[in-house]
Design brief:
It is a single chain. The protein has about 450 residues and is of the alpha+beta class. The protein has 8 helices and 18 strands. It has helices at about 1-30, 55-60, 65-75, 165-170, 305-315, 330-335, 385-390, 430-440; strands at about 40, 45-50, 80-90, 100-105, 115, 140-150, 160-165, 195-200, 215-220, 230, 245-250, 255-260, 265-280, 280-290, 325-330, 340-355, 365-370, 370-385. The strands form 4 sheets. The chain has a 9-stranded mixed sheet. β9 (about 215-220) and β10 form a beta hairpin. α2 (about 55-60) packs across α3. The longest helix has about 30 residues, at about 1-30. It is globular, with a radius of gyration of 27 Å.
Length: about 450
């Protein structure tokens, strides 16, 4: 019996050693395999699909200019959510000029196709003439007061104060470090890609209907790329419209309330106010909803990849998908002196990414990408406390459709949003302004 057990033990030992050897050799072979080679894509097609409610939505719908905008801002109908679309094709190939067609599904409600047009290299692009202001030391001074976090009271270390006069003299206050946003996405652009065409353009700038849907089959044909084909499912369609309202909180702050959007990945809110503190002196008050220290937050008022949104939600910089309320502390309103306080709300939506041909399963086979498609979605709105416009209590007057106030730029104005969100809160400060833009992710 002992001899039998000894024989079995020897057998199992040999088996174990053999398995270990195979495992080790297999691991070495795997480690020695080179990373899969990837080339291309030969063409990139980016789609920005935005839903906007409020002030700008009213302007775009009615064409009534500033008067219509103020009507929407103070409670007039904005005509419902506004939808915009930005199509950009960048390719390795070029043509003179680049051109194409985007065959669209019927639910978009914009005909059979949209024309893609590139700049004509034989025609000199018009140059906008602007008066360049003389650079001189500005009179007076402005301070920027940074707050963050939802709640009735502000957290420790707030506000961080940036004095422009001190900054121009080279003094940057301590405590300017804040949470960061990691987004290196750079979409197609004229000058960045050898071949480039986009929509809307000088040939066509048809308005996107408020009922538009991207769901269905899409085909992009052009003289700078092979045909690009992709299908949009309901999960990647336009987000719904945000209805943002604000009212005085129990402790004298300003409570923002909004509807929960289906498919929203997270929310981020900002607010801005300004008051004169002395003749030619003023304070700009900037607040955002981050639970972590975040200064400004302009870089979170645009598109972000879902993975980055997920990271920022886990770090409590972006509010969770189920959040529908956030209170701006009373100290923020007090710092603004009861003057204009504009609140902005951004909802991050899903992103569709398509690459053709699909990635080869064998890592030894080169992945030669023909084209890559990226469809980004978001929803945006703003609300202004009525005190700023009427001198009354801090309660907004919402439009009959539930929307209120300001929206994002039209599709024609968003061509730069591949790299940075729209917005111009930063004053002209030369080199000092570049420091600030770096802090804000600009």
């Amino acid at each position: 019996m002992d001899k039998l057990n000894l024989s079995r033990r020897r057998h199992f030992t040999h088996v174990a050693l053999a398995a270990l050897a195979c495992s080790t050799l297999g691991g070495q072979a795997l480690a020695q395999q080179p990373a899969q080679k990837i080339s291309g894509p030969q063409a990139r097609y980016w789609i920005n699909a935005e839903t906007t409610t409020g002030m700008m939505a009213g302007m775009q719908a009615g064409g009534g200019g500033f008067g219509a905008a103020m009507g929407a801002l103070l409670g007039g109908s904005s005509g419902g959510p506004n939808k915009s679309l930005l199509l950009e094709l960048g390719a390795v190939r070029d043509a003179a000029p680049a051109s194409g067609q985007h065959a669209i599904p019927a639910p978009l409600g914009m005909g059979a196709s949209l024309p893609l047009v590139g700049p004509n290299p034989g025609v000199k692009q018009p140059r906008e003439e602007r008066d360049v202001p003389e650079m001189r030391e500005p009179e007076g001074n402005m301070r920027m007061l940074f707050f963050w976090g939802c709640g009735e009271t502000v957290g420790a270390g707030q506000p961080v104060i940036l004095d422009m006069k001190e900054m121009r003299s080279g003094k940057l206050p301590a405590g300017m470090q804040s949470a960061s946003v990691r987004d290196n996405a750079r979409g197609p652009a004229f000058g960045r890609d050898r071949g480039y065409a986009d929509w809307p353009n000088t040939k066509d700038s048809t308005r996107v209907p408020s009922s538009a849907s991207l769901v269905g089959d899409h085909v992009v044909s052009s003289n700078i790329s092979n045909d690009i084909r992709f299908t949009v499912a309901p999960d990647n369609d336009y987000l719904g419209g945000l209805n943002l309202n604000n009212s005085a909180s129990t402790a004298g702050g300003n409570t923002l309330n909004w509807n929960n959007l289906d498919r929203a990945l997270g929310y981020f809110a900002t607010a801005m106010g300004m008051r004169e503190t002395a003749p030619k002196n003023s304070d700009m008050v900037l607040w955002n909803s981050s639970s972590q220290k975040m200064l400004g937050g302009e870089n979170l008022m645009g598109f972000l990849p879902p993975a980055e949104v997920s990271r920022l939600v886990s770090e409590r910089v972006v509010m969770t998908p189920g959040t529908t309320q956030c209170t701006i502390p009373k100290a923020v309103l007090d710092a603004a002196g009861g003057q204009m306080l504009m609140s902005n709300l951004n909802a991050f939506g899903p992103e569709l990414n398509v690459v053709q041909p699909p990635r080869p399963q064998d890592p030894r086979v080169e992945w030669k990408q023909d084209y890559a498609v990226k469809l980004r979605t978001r929803s945006y709105t703003s609300s202004m406390n009525a005190m700023a416009a009427t001198g009354g209590s801090r309660t907004s007057r919402s439009a009959p459709d539930g929307s209120s106030n300001q929206g994002a730029p039209t599709a024609a104005d968003t061509s730069g949003q591949n790299d940075k969100p729209a917005g111009g809160l930063l004053p002209n400060l030369g080199g000092a302004g570049n420091v600030l833009r770096g802090l804000f992710g600009r």
